[in-house]
Amino acid sequence: MSIYSPTILVSFTRYKHKMKLKLLIPTLLSTLISSFYITSPQPLETTTTITAAIDTITDTSIPFDSDGHEVQPGLKYHITPIQSNDSSGGGLSLASRDGICPPFVVQENTQLSNGLPLRFVPLDTKQNSITLSSDLNILFNAATICVQSTVWRVINGGGFGGGKYYVRSGGVVGRPGVATVSNWFRIERVGDIGYKIVFCPSVCSSSCKVVCGDVGILEENGKKWLALGDKPLVFMFQKA
Question: Cα separation of 105 and 108, whole Å?
Answer without folding.
Answer: 10
